[in-house]
Amino acid sequence: MKKRITGTLISLSAVFMSALCGCDSGTPDVTESDVTESIVTRITGELLIDDSDDKISEYPVTINDTVINSSPKSVICLSSSLTEMIFELGYGDRITGRGSYCSYPDSVLSLADYGKPASPDLEAIKRAAPDLLITATSIPSKDVSALSDLGIPVLYIASPRSVDEFGRIYCALGMVFEGLFDGEKTGNSVFGNIKDALTGHDTELGRFIYVTEGGFIAGGDTFESSVLSLFGENVAASASGYGYDKSLLKEDQPDVIILNSNITESELLADEVLGKLDAASGGKMISVSSSYFESPSGRITALVNELSENKGEENEA
User: Fold this and answer.
1) Residue 266: CB atoms within 10 Å
2) C-alpha span between 44 and 221 (Å, rounded)
3) Left if phi > 0, otherwise alpha if psi is -120 to 50, otherwise beta: which for 20?
4) How far, in Å, CA of 72 to CA of 32, rounded?
């Protein structure tokens, strides 16, 4: 028989905070039901103690208001990014269905396709009856309710806006499949390797801007800025989102311009402001794959080599 310690919640986004991942490897302190919410993940859990052996239960765990009562055996994941993370964490065999954009690792292509994240095939999902549906794109509340009524919980985890949030997603997914403590340990381990790769390099970009399609520049609260700031200083750090005023660059020029791979150097040079920057005219431009930021996963570690190689070519030029 299990007994519940009443009125006790573990707020992992607060209690398990660490420099590595937003999670701590130790046993959490028991606190009153005071929950701190993270932009990306809010994780709470009740301490359930089995009278027979005084073992603390790993479940239930609540992530972003979705209660996970036990480790799911069958999961449909509509997000390509979250699907990759789940495989990296070692739970790929639990994924029984995917979204249309999920293509990595190759093995997911053999799984049933349940549609695009913004317009999934809900009737097919109902027939499949997975233990859990995971998505990074919100689903209308009426559809979430309909799925929940059929015993299919929906877990929504938005894309990260910082490296720390990126790490907390790994921890959250670990807890989905292994519970509060073992899952947190697995999340720490996997993300620790990623963060080590992103920080253990000698590539220095100096002062940079990151330019997306349409000539928009990533501000300081974007995921792009958080990651690239591990390599240099974002000139547009004071801006929010992608609304930085390009005209300010005339008096505050970057050392290098990093381009989203969907925008070409010729397109940037044609921009009436960006094309006239010293870095642009001097060929100080580096193109990196947009997938690192649009669908983040462990493959983001390849960014280190991509920046290093391109930086070397730019120096030679």
Assistant:
1) 8
2) 26
3) alpha
4) 28
Q: How far apart are CA 198 and CA 109, in angstroms?
A: 29
* Cα angle 93, 98, 102; round to 5: 105
Q: What domains are defined for the chain? A: 2-68 (no CATH), 75-197 (3.40.50.1980), 202-316 (3.40.50.1980)
Q: Tokens at residue 46, please?
A: 């009740």
Which of 29, 18, 27 has the alpha carbon at shortest distance from 179? 27
Q: Encode the chain (317 residues) as per-residue pLDDT tens digits.
A: 444 433 333 333 333 333 334 444 343 343 333 333 333 445 665 555 555 555 677 899 999 989 999 999 999 999 999 999 999 999 999 999 999 999 999 999 999 999 999 999 999 999 999 999 999 998 899 999 999 999 999 999 999 999 999 999 999 999 999 999 999 999 999 999 999 999 999 999 999 999 999 999 999 999 999 999 999 999 999 999 999 999 999 999 999 999 999 999 999 999 999 999 999 999 999 999 999 999 999 999 999 999 988 765 555 55
In the β-sheet with 75-77, what is the strand arrangement from edge to edge? 112-113, 95-98, 75-77, 132-135, 154-156
Which residue do the tokens 């994240």 mark?
Answer: 117
Q: How far apart are CA 206 and CA 193, in angstroms?
A: 25
Query: Secondary structure of 245-263 in the HEC alphabet?
Result: CHHHHHCCCCCEEEEECCC
Torsion angle of C-alpha atoms 245, 248, 253, 259, degrees rounded to 10: 10
Distance (Å, whole) CA 112 – CA 120: 12
DSSP string, 10-37: EEHHHHT--TTTS--SSPPPPEES--PP
The CA distance from 313 to 248, in Å, is 28
Burial class (CB in 10 A: 0-12, 13-18, 19+), 312: exposed
Cα 312–255–249 angle (5° rounding)? Answer: 150
